[in-house]
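Journal club side-thread
Mid-discussion, someone asked how the predicted structure for our own chain would compare to the paper's figures. Pasting it here so we can look after the session.
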Amino acid sequence: MVNQFYIYAIDEDFGPFFLKFCSYFPYNGKLCLNGHEYLKQQLAKRGVGFEALDNGLLSCENAQEAQRICDGLSAEKIDQFFRKWLAILPHPFDAKDRSAGYTYDLSMLQVEFSLTQVLDRPMSGRVLFEEIIRENVDLGRPDQVQLIFDRRVTRRTPGRFRTRVLTDGVVPSLHIDYKKSKVKQYHKEGRALRTETTINDTRDFSIGRRLKNLPALRKIGFDANRRLLDVQRLSHDATLGEDEFHRVVRPIDVDGQHAAALRFDDPRVQALFASLVLFVLQFRGFSNKDLRGPLARLLGLRPEQLTAGRMTYDLRRLRLHGLIERIPKTHRYRLTDAGRRAAIFFNRVYGRLLRPGLSAVSPLAPPGTTGLNTALRRLEAEIDHAIESLRLAA
């Protein structure tokens, strides 16, 4: 064990931070700073009023200015801040060492990217968040994780891929692991929904550790946050109006082109929607070949049994119904907003409500196997009793 020297300080631009120096060769150091504290210091210097929410903002008089400040926190500013304090504080490299070229270089050990959405009805937000957790406990599966992080996951990919729901007192939090990185979501101080991606190893994304790679890492972190929120939004806002429902399940004519209906009770249509759900988070789109594999498995076929003509027919139907669109100058497609809603809604209603529900109330189901079955049989008995009491029986 060797001595570690901690120095805690407050910077006029970055707020509170700490530096740790090791007293043993190669004299490595550690800098810890918080971007939210930088934001609060800058807002205060500009005279912009705000209300803090721990290490975030609850409210701000000028949200656009706050966003500009956040966007301006660059690798160059962090490095300048670090060099300024190296010139002030004592550390293992003295003037002679520095003149010989020995100094510190910054690399990223742990980086967090967060999005805090403040709720105007916190109690309703808490209920919503708990429902979101229940709906999305499968997001840690490899096929879901690779979409959130836009990285391919195979059997040879190291690391654990899982979803955990942890409870601190009465406050639940959702954790999604990807290699050494994770996405965490929780209800912050009962006032806001906090989504944050923590990257503990930049190599998880084939990015170097040096500070100059911060812009590329920033994009990965914030994109992961937004993809997670988009999936959760769709899972809870997946209600189709009557007009939109009929636009999907009935035949349609667009600019003289006719497209057959996507009937809800058609097994092939259900297989199509279940396949499309796999591409909800894939912003690079999908090709005919990408869709063919999952669709064939759901239909109990081999991919080669789905002809190119049949796949083109299905893609054309989806496109004319406004559920997918072709990416310009490519042979790839992406889901539209209506397509994402329809795919998730149709798939979940069929898979989680109709199929298990009808199985539970089927006359062939053993009595008492589910509460729904028992309640339905009790209802039928009460109706029969009422008919006999009123002498309505044939």
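Post-session note: The chain has a mean pLDDT of 82.
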